[in-house]
Amino acid sequence: MPTIKIYPHPEYCPQGAEITAPAGTSICEALLDNDINIEHACEMSCACTTCHVIVRAGFDSLNEAEEGEEDLLDRAWGLEPQSRLSCQSILAQENVTIEIPKYSINHAKENH
């Protein structure tokens, strides 16, 4: 089962974390299943950028981004070459390391 290492994030994961999830699971689903409540305003339907993550290791092991995801990422805060929408990033057998950006373009956060 692949491991996801999450860099510390002041709101979602202050100490950082390391979790496991079955191959075939999206990074977003894995985070939520492990009580790391990353934003996902569109309910993981690839219609926003609130679940944007930067894949610091294991990027090439993920499924390839489709055009719709790439178009949305152009609007994400802090876009980097290894940026992905976590709801569209499907784990394979390799471990990944991610960073959740400090900000998102979502102006009205839920649960606040």
TrEMBL record:
GO terms for cellular component: cytosol. One of its GO terms (molecular function) is 2 iron, 2 sulfur cluster binding. Its cofactor is [2Fe-2S] cluster. GO terms for biological process: P450-containing electron transport chain. Residues 2-104 form the 2Fe-2S ferredoxin-type domain. The keyword Iron-sulfur applies. This is 2Fe-2S ferredoxin. It comes from Variovorax boronicumulans.
